[in-house]
Amino acid sequence: MGAAMDDFYEVAVRSGIFALTLTAIDKKTAEFYRKLGFIDFGAKDISQPNLLLPAASIIEFRQKIGLS
Known about the structure:
With 68 residues, the chain is α+β, with helices and mostly antiparallel strands. The protein has three helices and three strands.
């Protein structure tokens, strides 16, 4: 997951993408992603939640820890 976040950061900075989206395979997996900063979007109370991670949160995090 760390490598995916690094790749997302690089693409977001270069292209202006504003979010990474995914569909979790189940509610338990969605909880894992929420702990990483993903937020719900779209329909609620479904077995495979849709989540997104704002690019700004990754950019700010990397700047905060000195990786950008």
